[in-house]
Design a protein that fits this description.
The chain is of the alpha+beta class. It has helices spanning 2-30, 52-64, 89-106; strands spanning 35-41, 44-49, 70-71, 78-81.
């Protein structure tokens, strides 16, 4: 039963990651002058901003909204997202709302 539960949880987690990817793509389409592109590699997402100032502003805006994101150590125009393993649909929705609020504040 434990293995079956872990498999089900992994499938559910993948669905949440896919939902985050869709939400990020939608927001990139709404705010293309701020968020140039987004990409996903496994569980990690990279958000490409117009410049380092926008990247750092997004980081600050998300922090003000209670969401931790990570700046790339090499390029400040790239912000990384590392979703936790304890995701649920409420977390995904809250993240999307807060990300949109941050991007709107930057526009």
């Amino acid at each position: 039963i434990g293995q079956l539960h872990r498999r089900h949880r992994a499938i559910e987690f993948r669905k949440f990651l896919d939902e985050i990817e869709r939400n990020v793509a939608t927001l990139q389409g709404r705010y293309p002058s701020v968020l140039r592109s987004a990409r996903r590699a496994g569980m990690m997402f990279a958000l490409d901003f117009a410049d380092a100032d926008n990247g750092m502003r997004f980081l600050a805006e998300m922090f003000l909204r209670g969401v931790l994101v990570v700046a790339s150590s090499q390029r400040l125009d790239i912000i990384k997202l590392y979703p936790p393993l304890i995701l649920d649909s409420e977390h995904v929705s809250t993240f999307a709302e807060r990300m949109e609020s941050a991007l709107r504040a930057m526009s």
